[in-house]
Amino acid sequence: MQVKAREQAGKNLYTARKQGLIPSVMYGHGSVPQMFWVQYLEFSKLYNEAGESSIVNIVPENGKAMNVIISDVQFDPLSNRFIHADFFKVRMDEKLEARIPLEFIGEAPAVREMGGILVKPAEEIQVRCLPKDLPHSIEINVSVLKTFENHIQVKDIKIPNGVEVLADLDTVIALVEEPRTEAEISALDEKVESDVTKVEGVVKEVPASEETPAQPSEEKK
Question: Which of 1, 112, 137, 209 has its CA 20 to 30 A from that of 130?
Answer without folding.
Answer: 1
